[in-house]
Amino acid sequence: MSKGRLFAALLAAATVALVVIGTVWPVPSAVAYAGGASLLRSSSTPEEAVANLGDEIRMQAWGKAYASLANKAQFTQPEFVHDLTGYYSSLRTYATVENFEVRPLHASADEAEIELKLHWSTVVGASVSTRDLHVIRNGDRWEPEWPIAKEPIVPPQVIPVNYLRWDVIYRGPGDDWGAQDVEAPHVRIVDMHPVERADGVVILGELLNEDVVPAYVSVSATLLSKSQSPIATEGSFDKISHLLLPKQVTPFLIKFPNVALSEVGSIRMTPLSALIAASADPVIEIENEQLHPAPGASLTGQLINQSGQIVNVAHVLGTFYDKTGQVVWVADEYIDRALLPQNPVPFEIHIPEDLARNVSSQRTVIATYSSGGAQ
Amino acid sequence: MRTRSAFLLSGMAVAMMQLAFAQDRSMSLPKTVEAGNAFTIQSTGSGKATLYIIGLGQVLKRDVQLGEATFFPAGSLYNAGHYLAVLAGDSSTESDSFDVVPASKPADLSFLARPSRLPVGLHDGITGAVYVFDAYHNLIAAPTPVSFELSNPSGTVQKRIVLTREGAAWTGMDSTARQGMDRFVARIGEISSARVVGQVPGDPCGLKMNARQSGQQVQLVTDPVRDCNGNAVPDGTIVTFTEAYNGAQSTVDVPLKHGIAEVQMAGHNGATISVASGVVLGNQIRWEK
Questions:
Q1: Are B140 and B103 in contact (CB under 8 A)?
Q2: Percentage, residues of chain A above pLDDT 70
Q3: In Å, how far is A111's CA from the nearest CA of chain B?
């Protein structure tokens, strides 16, 4: 009992001591977050000026970030904020800057070029954006110029669309038990094969909706050992386009970390499909798709929203084939900007260097999400 | 001593009477009773007893006068199965069993038709299964002819008559070459049950597009897209246009609208433009401005 009291007294004393220390000698970041003195640097060099801007963007101190710019007369603070977070709802709207990198590109006595790489944390993972900033000397300080990219504004208008929409009525509780429910869409795996990678086994393939109704799809796979006992079961998660319109094909990729292909005797694939209410809108054109060889192998292109509906999130899935037409890799990228009608948005999907030399063709599909749910 | 002897004699007399009662008592049961029908159970002997009828999920209890018939009105026993009748007197019981069988007249059908949607032209693609029940939902195990009829809006009718086995009958039907909502009916006498089976077009067949200049772009339009039986492929079906040029390509997935797919693409000089839907390839066009 006496030991417990002594321990409680020690804890209370330690807590009071720490509170006093934290109040009298606070760490700079705590002062900054509390609205006190800034933890920013002096901006006496171009790198420090851009690093200060990066910190302000990370802390979402938009006013301070805007005030630090040399070219703020060219745009307003809301335009600056929209350039960073998007004017329309998108992945960026709810993203925060996790960290940033500053890299000098060129410098002279009065001006410099600095690359600012912002690492955003979004709901679907990390997203990187890079801006090259022109930095100029102003007395004993350096001030960055923000390369504003004004997002086009869609003027208020009415765009008539008459694309098909499917709605579903399922069987109700009052129906005769023999009455059949609406049939689930018929889907088929048209290609599938496993690939061994450094971090485990990856299953690549393609799934076709061979029905006349839209389907919500996913694929799971179970690896079986040579004695037919299950090793592991995994799903495609987001490495698939979950909404398939009639006769549409999606690639899928399923990862089995820490499994060697030599352990696998067979694979049991389980495609899942369910009817889903869907619209044939929006139509997205993928323009100027180009395969770039290693080093830095990638697929680039532009997405053009041909519909009137604003697409808040677009998910680009690339399927890469070898000369025989076999799938060699599936990769994806989320577009962190909203797709506005007829406004091209670039994308870049990276291809593993070791596989890039086998790639001879590709096919790209887009999954889109608009506010109000998957369309 | 005389009193004790009188008690002993009267006790023996009562015992003898009870023995006589037990020996005289008996039940006369029907071997089978049709579900829901009235029936009687005749007993012999004299005195009072209690009659229990015990079956799956149902127990009846009647106070009976031995020697008289006990009447059970229609609807007393309606679940088919094996029943036990127990006649319980003061000192002994007697039991016997009988069966309640389904009514011979079908009153209800449970009809399972699968699938509710399938492509045209599939042999035995449609399955129908029927279970025949009486008015009390007892499965009628006696062989009963069931008529299956699949009719297409175009007037094509497929008809099969199948005898039930152990209460069930099933058949397979072909989907026809014409799309539409087929009516699948199972019938026994006046009783019928209907289901709707959607026959939908198959894969596109002979997919063909045409190209024409539209300003600086190329306008691509398919011919009306049909399957190999001539059925129009439904709107919303995805048609993929691909334009390959100078090592790059552009792709767009377009849903069919009013039976055709239509799109504008950049139309680079010398580009190869192809069209596909699902796993079906269409024609290719080399575009020269």
A1: yes
A2: 94
A3: 39
